[in-house]
C-alpha cells in the first residue's frame, strides 16, 4: 500500500477529481444498502399479509430511484478516477522522457533501449492502474464493506454479523501473503519483458545484418528463448493471481453457510424474521464485491508498486553532466586550448588519453590522425562535454568549457559524428533540424556547401523526400553529407568532422573542404580522418598513437620529421598510385 503514499504528490495535484470520485463512490456504497432492506420489508409484509398496492408502489419507486442515482454516480466516479489516472501516465511519461534527454552517453551505454522503452510503456501502465483501479478497489472495498457490515449489524442482527465475519481474518492473512509473492514475481516478469523488448528492438534494427550473415535461425531461437521466459515468469504471476478469487469465494461461501445455519436458529427462536434473513444474505452477497476488490487491490497495488520502484530507480539515476551554478549562458567563441593530462572512460581501467595538449586559434583548422582506437574520438567527446572527469583543463575563449551552460556550449559546436543518424522525416527537416523554421535558401545553402544539393534535386521529391529510419534509402556518402549540412545550419563557431568524409570520393572531399574553407573563414574546424588528404591543409595536425600525441605540426613539418605521419602519407600515396595503375 506504500505506493499510494509515494503517489500522494499526484493525488494532491488532482485532489478535486479524486475528492468528487471518492464522494460518489461512498454515496453509491450507501445507496446500495437500500434495495436489500426494501426487499426484506416487502417479504415480511407479504408474510404478514399487510402488503398493499400503494406500499408496493412505494417500495418499487424507492428501488428505481436509488438505481437511477447509482447509475449517474457510477458514471461520474469512473470519469473522475479512471480519467485522472491518464494524467499520471502522461506526467510520468514526460518526466522519464525529460530525464532521458538530460542523460549523458555513459547512461545509454549502460542501459538498453528496449529496457528504457519497457519502463516508458508497461511500467507506466501498471502505475496508471494503481491510480485508477487501485484507488477504486481501495475505497470501494472500504466504503461498501463498512456500510454493508454496519447495515447488517445495526439494522438486522449484530450477533449474526459477527458470526458471518469469522472467516474474514483468514482471508486478510492469505491475500496479504499472496500480495508479497506477487510483488516479487511481477518484478521478475517486468524485467523479462524488458529483455524481450530489447531483443525485439535490436533484432529489428539489425535485421539487415542478421540476414546478411544468415543468422535468422539463431535469432529466432534467441527470441523464442526470451519469449518463453516472459511467458514462464508471467505464468508464475498468474498462478498467484488465480489464488485470489477461489480464496475469496471459499471464505464468502463459509460465511453464507454460517449465516444460514445460525439465521435459521435465530428465526426459530423468534429473534429474527424471514425477511431479515433474506435481507442479511442479500447484504452478504453485496460483501462479495468488496472482498474481491480487496484481492484485486493487492494485485493491482503490488504490480503498480513494483513498476513504480523501477521507474523511480531510473529517475533517480543522477544526471552526470550538469550545468554549474552561475555557468555562463553565452555562446563560446575564440581560441581553443586543450590540455588533458589523462582521461579514463567511466567503465574502463586504463586511460584512453594521456598528455594530449594542443592550442587552436579562432579560425584555424586542426587535423587529428591516427590508427583506429588511438583516441581521436575521445578528444572530441571531451570537447563536447559528453564526459567530465579528466585531469587537465579545456578552455574555449579563455573560459573552461564546464563553466559554460551545456546548451550554450553545444550550440556553438556543429558536430558531425562517425555514425550518422537521420530521422524518419524529410531531407529538409533533417538538415534544418536545429532550426526548423529556417528559410529554404538557407537549407539549400548548407546543402550546397556540403555538396549534397545536386543529389537532393535528383530525388523524386527533392528536399521533401522522406528518408526512412536511419536513412536507409541513401548511400553512406549521401548520409554523411546531409549530416554535414545539418551541422552547418547551426553556423557553428567550431565545426567538428569526425571521420565524416570517409564515404565520399577524393574529389568530393576536396570540393567540400574547399567550400568550408571559403565560407567559414573566421570559424574553427577540427577534422579527424584516416585519409590524410582531408587534413593536409590544416594549420595544426596532431598524430595520435595509443591515446597520446606522438607528433604535432603542419603537413610540411611532419613530413620533414619522417616519422609516423610521413610513413602514413607515403603509404597512402602508394595506395593511390596502385589504384590509379589498376584503373
Ligand atoms: N564510451 C567509451 N567507454 C569506454 N571506452 C571507450 C569509449 N569510447 C572509446 N573508448 C575506448 O577509448 C579508446 C579510444 O577510442 P576512440 O573512439 O577515441 O578511437 P578513435 O581514434 O576515434 O578510433 P576510430 O578511428 O576507429 O574512430 C579505445 O580503446 C576505445 O575502446
UniProtKB/TrEMBL annotation:
Keyword Membrane recorded: yes
Entry-linked Pfam families: ABC_membrane, ABC_tran
Coiled coil: none
Keywords: ATP-binding, Cell membrane, Membrane, Nucleotide-binding, Transmembrane, Transmembrane helix, Transport
Domain called ABC transmembrane type-1: residue spans: 19-303
Domain ABC transporter: 338-571
Membrane topology: Multi-pass membrane protein
GO molecular function, one term: ATP binding
Gene Ontology annotations for the cellular component aspect, listed alphabetically: plasma membrane
Compartment list: Cell membrane
Superkingdom classification of source: Bacteria
Parts of the chain that traverse the membrane: 56-77, 135-154, 160-178, 243-268, 280-301
Protein name according to UniProt: ABC transporter transmembrane domain-containing protein
